[in-house]
Amino acid sequence: MPSISAVLKPLLGTLAGIVGIYAAFVCLLTIPTLQDHVIFLHKVTLTWFQDVNVPEQWGFLRNQVTPFHLKTPDGQTLHAWHVLPLETYRKNQKELREEPTGLCEDIEDRLSFKLLKEDPTAQLVIYFHGAAGTLGSGWRPQSYRALSATSTNVHILAIDYRGFGTSTGWPSEAGLLTDGLTLVKFALDEAGIPPERIVVFAQSIGTAVAIAVTHHYALQSPPVLFAGTVLVAPFADVAQLARTYKVAGTVPLLSPVAFFPKLLALLNRFIRTKFPSKEKLADMIRHLDSAKTGERRRKYDITLIHAEDDYDIPWIHSDVLFWHAVNATLEPSASLTFDDLEKIKAKQKTPLGAGGWEMEWEGKGGVVREQIVKHGLHDRIMSYPVVSLAVSQAFHSQDEARD
Question: What is the pLDDT of residues 205-228, one digit of tens each?
C-alpha cells in the first residue's frame, strides 16, 4: 500500500506547478502589450470564417445593413455597420435591393443613409460593443435586431474599435474614446441627427467607452445632451474588474491576488488601462445637475442593467456605479455609504419576481436606474426585452419628464 508521502508528493508537485504558472502569468501582465490582449481580447475575432462585409450571413435582409468605413482624427480606419429598422426597410425594400451589396465606399450616397438623415422622425442608437469579437460576433446581431424593433424607426450605428476585426490600429483607452467620439461626430454632423434623438447603448467594455463619450459631450459648453444612455453589464473601473473578472466566466483573472491587497495594489500600478467609469459617471451627473441647459427638463436618463448570473462581470459592479451616481446627486454632507444605499434600495426598489428588481433615483437634472434581472448571463441579455424597453424609455425620457 503506498505511503501518504508517496501520494502527496505528486499532488504537491502539481499544485506547485499550477501556482508557478499563475505567478508567471501575473508577472507577464506587467507587459503593456499582453495587458492589451487580456483586457480587449481584440484578436479573438469569433468571426474567423465570416466576412463582416456580408451582413446577410447573420440573417439580415439584402442591404438592411450597410458596411462602411469611418476615418478617425488620428488616421485610423474603423469598420462600421448601419442597421436599418425593419419597417423603414419594408417601405423601401425595392430600391434597397437594387443597390450594390458589400462594403460601401461612400455611405452618404446610399439610400439607407438618406433614410436616416432626411427623416425628421428617425431615432438612432449609437452602439458600443464589448471586448473580443467583431460587430458580427456572438449575440450582437440578435441585439441589433431587437433594438431596431424597439419602434418603427430606430436606426443603429455600430463600430469595431481600432484593432478589432478589420479596423486598423491597436486598442487603448484613449484610442477607444477617439473611436467613440468619431462615431458620435459622424451621427451629429454628417447624418445630422440631433442628440435628443440619439440613445447611447453599450455592453461590457463598451460601457466604459459610452461613459467616457457622454462625459466628454456633457462637459461641452453648452452641454450636448443625448436622449439617454443604456449600459448593460458595466464595470466600475479596471482595478475592480481585475479583482472580479473571470475569462469565459470560469477562469479567474486576478481574484486570487486580491487576497494580498498590497500585491494587488502594486500590480494595478502597472496596468495602464484604467477606464475610471465610476468617477466619470459621477462627475457627469454632478456637472449636469448644476448646468443650465435651456428648456430641457431631463438632462440625463441613465439605465444600468445587469444579470445576476453574469459570471464574467459580477453585478456588484452595477451596484458600485449606481452608488457613485446617487452620491453625485447629493450634497457632500449628505453622501451615503454603500451599505446605507443598499438599505434604501431594499425598501424602495420595485420587485419584479422572477424578472429581478428595479431601482430608480431622481437627481436634480435627471434619473438613474439600476435594473438587476435574474437571467441573461453576460451577452445573451443584450437581446432581451428588458434592454429594448430601456432604450425605448430613453427615447421617451423627455415625454416622461413633462408628465
Answer: 999 999 999 999 999 999 999 999
